[in-house]
Amino acid sequence: MQDQITASTYRPISTHLAIAPPVSIVIPAMNEAENLPFVFKTLPQWIHEVVLVDGNSTDDTVAVARELWPDVKVIEQRGKGKGDALITGFEACTGDIIVMVDADGSADGHEIVSYVSALVSGADFAKGSRFANGGGTDDMTPIRKLGNWALCTVVNRKFGARYTDLCYGYNAFWRHCLDKIDLDCTGFEVETLMNIRVVKAGLKVQEIPSHEYVRIHGASNLRAVRDGLRVLKVILKERSNRRSLRRRPRALTLGSGTGEAS
Question: Domains in the chain, please, with CATH?
Fold first, then answer.
């Protein structure tokens, strides 16, 4: 009887893996009604909750989300910017594991199992990478790719990281990590800030190969030069910050077993 009770607390997420920790998905969205059907259709049914942070949409974003996922938790964003939306969503999560997913249809929800697998296997932070072996991107201009590489190189050298990708918004982590990285930015630079602060906090990082698809509908609010400068500003600010670098996290590529990502 006890075995039956224990088994019922686990969620099967693949033929080889079942987990007990509830998983929350955070989706920041503003005027993404046309893209949400593509986002939600790939989300696994075993997740605990979907938290959609609505950035004052003027289309049917909220109505579409509720139709697609009746139990969706809709949070109205009071501030502005992706960073603000994510922080708002994180605060509303009740799951032990939090996964960040963009609302433009560029992320494949089927990959969530890889992120969760990395976390339950011992990682604190599962970081998506388009440039790790097995990853890829259909939606990056040459100037963005160059900028991402340059900024990633700076972070690796200044903070002792071994990242292959820096400015990517598909990540997952244990909720307790939020207490150690203390997010306090509002824009697209939020992913960079997270990546730097998990290094400074000495958290164990595992890179997850991920494929980024082209935005399906609408135009991105990302501006390569403007947002690249904001990212650089965050890097310089964090480097001058007196928080100590504890120990270098072990950045693993999924399936590599041991070692650091290259």
Answer: 20-238 (3.90.550.10)
